[in-house]
Specification:
Blueprint (H helix, E strand, L loop, with lengths): L4 E10 L2 E7 L9 E2 L11 H13 L2 E14 L4 E13 L7 E7 L14 H19 L1 H8 L5 H8 L7 E5 L5 H8 L3 E6 L2 H11 L3 E3 L11 E7 L10 H11 E12 L4 E3 L5 E3 L3 H9 L4 E13 L2 E12 L5
Parallel strand pairs: 1-5, 7-8, 7-10, 8-9, 10-11
Antiparallel strand pairs: 1-2, 2-3, 2-6, 4-5, 11-15, 12-13, 14-15
C-alpha cells in the first residue's frame, strides 16, 4: 500500500452551525462537500497547514485549536490521512477561490449535502458531539432536576480527604451545581464550569455565584487549583482529545493537586438512547490513559456498580496527583 498523504480539515463552528465547502468543477472530488483544508507541505505542522490553506482558499484569518479526529480513506489513486482540528474564524470575509459553494449547516442539515468519502467519519463524529451538546441545551432543566438529588457522599470523601483545608476546587462540568454546593459548604472555594450555556445559568442561580461557560478543550488555567472535580463529565470528551484535555487539567492543578474523574465502564465509545456520546474506559485502559499524561500519578483507581435510572451501571473512577515532571 502506498504511503498516506497527510491532509488537514477544519471544523469551523459558529452559532451552532458548521462550515462546509463544495469542490469546484475540474478539481479532485468536484461536486463533493468537505471540511476545508489541504495537503501538508514539507516541514509544515498540521496547524500551520490549516492556517495557510484557509487563507489561500477563503481569504480568512483563523486560530487553530484542538485536534478533533482523523480519517484514513483509499480513493484508489491515492491514500488520504485526513486530520481534523477545531478552528476559530478571527477575521476576513469568506471568498470562494478553490470552491464553488459554501454553507453553514445546522445539525439537521448536515446530511443534506454529499460529503467527500474521507470526510464522512469526521462528519459522523461531529454529529455525535453536536447532538450531545444539543441534548443538554434542550433538556437543561429536566437534566438538572433529575441529577441534583443524586447522592455522591461516598465519592466526595476520598477526594476531599486528599485536599488541604480551604482548597480551591475546579468543578469541571458542574451540571446542576450539586457538587459545587457541597464543596462550598465544606469551606472550599469553587470555580464552576459547564459547557452548556443553559445548564450553567441554572447552576449559577442555584449556587449564587458565577458559572463560566467553557469546553474542556478551552481550559487555560496554570497552577491555580488544589483540586479538579470531573465526576461524569469528561466521559463526553472525544477519545481522540482526551490526552490533550488531561494535559490541560494537569496544568490547571498546583503541584500535588488532586483530580477526581469518573467514567462509565466499557471498552468502546458509545451513544445512548438520548443521543449522548460516551467515552468509556476499563480499569486497565484508564490506567494507560493517565500514564500517558506527563505529571500525572495515579493515587487510586477503582470500579463499582451503581444504581441509576432503575438500572445498575458499572463505573470506573480515578484519583490522580500532579507531581513534578522529571527533567
Amino acid at each position: 500500500m502506498s504511503k498516506a498523504i497527510a491532509v488537514t480539515a477544519a471544523i469551523l463552528v459558529k452559532s451552532g452551525k458548521v462550515f462546509a465547502a463544495r469542490r469546484k468543477p475540474g478539481s479532485h472530488l468536484a461536486g463533493y462537500w468537505e471540511f476545508p483544508g489541504g495537503k501538508l507541505k514539507s516541514g509544515e505542522s498540521p496547524e500551520e497547514c490549516l492556517k495557510r490553506e484557509l487563507t489561500e482558499e477563503f481569504g480568512i484569518t483563523t486560530k487553530v485549536g484542538m485536534f478533533v479526529g482523523e480519517s484514513i480513506y483509499d480513493y484508489g489513486t491515492k491514500l488520504v490521512h485526513l486530520m481534523a482540528y477545531q478552528v476559530e474564524h478571527l477575521a476576513g470575509d469568506f471568498q470562494l477561490i478553490d470552491h464553488d459553494d459554501m454553507r453553514w449547516l445546522t445539525l439537521a442539515d448536515v446530511d443534506t449535502v454529499e460529503w467527500a468519502p474521507a470526510d464522512i467519519p469526521l462528519v459522523e463524529q461531529y454529529k455525535t458531539m453536536a447532538g450531545t451538546a444539543a441534548y443538554y441545551d434542550d433538556n437543561a432543566q429536566a437534566y438538572c432536576d433529575e441529577t441534583s438529588g443524586f447522592e455522591l457522599r461516598e465519592l466526595y470523601k476520598p477526594f476531599l480527604d486528599l485536599l488541604p483545608v480551604s482548597s480551591h476546587i475546579l468543578d469541571l462540568g458542574c451540571g446542576s451545581g450539586r457538587d459545587s454546593k457541597v464543596f462550598l459548604s465544606e469551606g472550599h472555594t469553587v470555580t464552576a464550569i459547564d459547557g452548556s450555556t443553559a445548564i450553567a445559568a441554572i447552576a449559577e442561580r442555584y449556587l449564587g455565584q458565577p458559572v463560566k461557560v467553557s469546553n474542556f478543550q478551552e481550559l487555560q488555567y496554570n497552577n491555580v487549583f488544589d483540586g479538579v472535580w470531573a465526576s461524569a463529565s469528561l466521559l463526553h470528551c472525544p477519545r481522540a482529545q482526551m490526552q490533550g484535555v488531561l494535559a490541560r487539567v494537569s496544568r490547571a492543578l498546583r503541584p500535588n493537586g488532586i483530580a477526581c474523574m469518573s467514567f462509565k465502564w466499557g471498552t468502546d465509545e458509545t451513544v445512548d438512547e438520548r443521543g449522548r456520546y460516551f467515552n468509556n474506559y476499563t480499569n486497565k485502559s484508564l490506567q494507560l490513559l493517565i500514564g500517558a499524561v506527563p505529571g500525572f500519578q495515579v493515587v487510586d483507581l477503582w470500579s463499582e456498580a451503581k444504581s441509576l435510572r432503575a438500572k445498575h451501571q458499572k463505573w470506573v473512577t480515578v484519583l490522580v496527583r500532579r507531581v513534578a515532571e522529571e527533567a
